[in-house]
Amino acid sequence: MDAATRLRPLMDAVHDTAAEVRAKSPDYFADRPLRLDRDLLARYGGPAGADGTLARLLGDAYGLTVEPVDGPEALTAVDRLLAERATGGSGASGASGASATAPPEPELAAVLRSVAAAQQERDRLDRAAAERIAARPPERTGVMGGVLHYAAAGPRREGAPPVVLLNALGMGPALWYPLMGQLAQEHRVVTWAPRGTAPGSRPLRVRDHAADLEAVLVAEGATACHLVGWCTGPKVAMAFHRRRPDAVRSMVWLHGSFRRTDDAGGREPDTSYERNLEELCRAVAARPAMADTLRRIFDGGGGADPGTSTGTDAAPGTEADPRRFAEEVLARPARALDEELRRPFATGPVLAAYARQLLDYWADDALAHAPQVRVPVLCVGAAYDRIASPERLAQAVDRFPDARYRQLTGATHHSMYDRPREIAGLLTGFLRAVEPTGAPRTPAQL
Asked: Residues of 347-368 as b/e, b for ≥16 C-beta within 10 angstroms?
């Protein structure tokens, strides 16, 4: 095995972690090192890992400081994310000290620069694919009350069900473009901005959004589909399954929410965001004329309320504590999403319509239908999801006959934007296992 192949898992881990952190906090590494356990460095680099040479050259290749440390207790959340990526979550890399003999330093430096350049080129191509999808004229289909515009990518293939990305209420399709660029290499992929928040829109309910999904499938000429529901999307998927169970091949809940508002005993594991958002929605519903004033509670930091640290500014006191600050940065949305995540709070009328739809959504007990869902279900949670409770999603798994739960280390509610390649790999693997030869398989077989 050559040095580039042997070092690639470690370099991918460094690259992906540094890119994700910089998207959330561009100056994070200006005065903070990226720490790597000496044992991990030695397994990948042999003597060059043990004596610090590999760490120094990695830092040069990625424009940051890589600091060797002794033992995992010295690692922050950012460093632990890197270590899990480098080891595949096993705690040990595929390289061993016996076989990981690095080439001389000048050759090793050249190998690292070459791999880093290849990663940058891959990123450029990924961005270009997402930009092409964003620039493409939308598809159109008639729906009750007007026309629905939707984004589509990937070829239509006879007998191959499309992957439908069910968006969150109030959100546009921009968060999905990077993931669509990845999935479209194997699948027809569609998504859209759920209707009902534009000024003058008629009130929509969960069943209306399910009808929109059916209209898109008709426009696509599809008789079946795979459903990926993000945030509020799972309840739309469940409503569609109730009316067309034969049309659903599999379901994925990506940081999905099955929140209900009839929790009289207070047993629901809400996030503070969910509780505060419900208070805002009820206040707006009671006094729609005050919507423009009330929306300022959530305006700023990507729609985050002041009581959480999901925004782009550090919570007070965290920067001085490396461990707390690393966790706070990982929990943020990418800065590029600031304006997109404010969409539901853009104006008073938009917020009023959004609040009306959310209250209807929360009143729907979608899990009552879960025992009737016989297709494979994959629930994907995120360790730093401060929007939709990952605990609630994990609890929902047991309600479905064939379901399993997967939690992403260090990820947020917006993983499809932060980690499109990782999420695409997870979804593609699930879909291949569901229909390797056209015959469905259960999650237990994955």
From this structure: ebbbbbbbbbbbebbbebebbe
Q: Which residue do the tokens 């561009």 mark?
A: 26
Residues paired with residue 250 on neighbouring β-strands, in sequence order: 226
The pLDDT score that the predictor gives to residue 100 is 60
Per-residue pLDDT, 200: 73
**pLDDT for the residue numbered 198:** 82
pTM value > 0.85: yes
Complete DSSP assignment for 276-343: HHHHHHHHHHH-GGGHHHHGGGT-STTT--TTSS-SSSPPTT-TTSHHHHHHHHHTSPPGGGHHHHTG
Contact 195, 201 (CB under 8 A): yes
pLDDT of residue 175: 97
Residue 407 near residue 394 (C-beta atoms within 8 A): yes
Residues 412-435 have a mean pLDDT of: 96
Average pLDDT over residues 289-317: 58
**Phi, psi angles (nearest 5°) of residue 301:** 60, 35
The long-range contacts involving 367-371, CB below 8 angstroms and separated by at least 24 positions, are: 367/238, 367/258, 367/396, 367/399, 369/238, 369/241, 369/242, 370/238, 370/396, 370/399, 370/400, 371/399, 371/400, 371/401
Q: What does the block give as tokens for 387? A: 């929007």
**pLDDT beyond 50 at 301:** no
Residue 162 carries which DSSP code?
Answer: P
